[in-house]
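To fix ideas, we give here one paired sequence and structure record:
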Amino acid sequence: MNKIPQRTCMGCNQKKDKKQLIRIVKNKDNEISLDRTGKKEGRGAYICDDIKCLEKLIKSNRLQKIFEMNISQEIYESLRGVILDK
């Protein structure tokens, strides 16, 4: 039996199965994108597929701290769009 990888949501701080979370990636060129496959190269952060977790992430500026850079509103809006389009 294979062990299912666990990751922590940056919004609610709960551990969940990796496949239940959305991965946000910062690559070598400091570009931030969504990673549906979980295989893109770069530093990753995970968030639940829940608008409440996204709002907590935005309010706390946690994504900026994790990636050590400013995060544009466009990235937050694209995350909002992905979460609301379930």
About this structure: The first helix runs from residue 51 to 60. The two ends are 30 Å apart (CA to CA). The CA atoms of residues 27 and 78 lie 17 Å apart.
